[in-house]
From TrEMBL:
It comes from Saccharothrix ecbatanensis. Keywords: Endoplasmic reticulum, Glycosyltransferase, Membrane, Signal-anchor, Transferase, Transmembrane, Transmembrane helix. GO terms for molecular function: dolichyl-phosphate beta-glucosyltransferase activity. This is dolichyl-phosphate beta-glucosyltransferase. CDD domains: DPG_synthase (cd04188). It catalyses: a di-trans,poly-cis-dolichyl phosphate + UDP-alpha-D-glucose = a di-trans,poly-cis-dolichyl beta-D-glucosyl phosphate + UDP. It is a single-pass membrane protein. Belongs to the glycosyltransferase 2 family.
Amino acid sequence: MRLAGVELSVVVPVYNEERRLPASLVGLHMALRGIAAEVVVVDNASTDGTVDVVRAHDGPVRLLHCAERGKGAAVRAGVLASRGRFIGFCDADLAASVDAVPSVLDRLRRGVDVVVGSRAHPRSDVRARNSPLRHVGAWAFRRAVQPIVPGIGDTQCGFKFFAADVARAAFEPLRTTGFTFDVEVLARAQRLGAVIEEVPVRWIDVAGSTFDTLRDGYRSFAALHRIRALLDAEERPVTRPVLVAEAA
């Protein structure tokens, strides 16, 4: 549902982020200064003090709860509850710097439907501490993704922004609840004929990720097969949906 006066909604999925979240919320609100924005934090059944951190934050933030586990499930819940003209999401650790939000917003205002932060962009500044195993896994994953989302160099960077109509059309039918949800979302956006741009990011690998290279890496490759089968079984949309302006 659109809310008059909110131009940008930023969804932040969180699970046991009581240590990293306070600084991230401050940094996010600083990046959003001068923008009519809302921050939607989606708690994905945290067992620590994450919820208390959000409630104690001195700034405009909405807290949602998503009982269904998985990053994809949490982001979907936040997107569908967002009220902005544009909707995006970023990771709780702000590994991808949110300093780029104003330039991303300019692109959306000019008619770009989806803006994707890309660590593969030649102008990106990426400081990673990946193990050799994770590096090889990431390379293999990018190769495997190309037939599903052709032309996108980095589907997994947690920094994506959408026109609201495209966001809802891509997230409403989302069935991938884990880390690989981005692939399904981008594939659905492409099927809608959305204009997608990849932009450079300043990305710093932050300790504390819940992604396990072996366990979640295997699940991610398995998810690609499910996503491809799911999309192949669906009829392609004839056109992108039309956003109907709501009364203030």
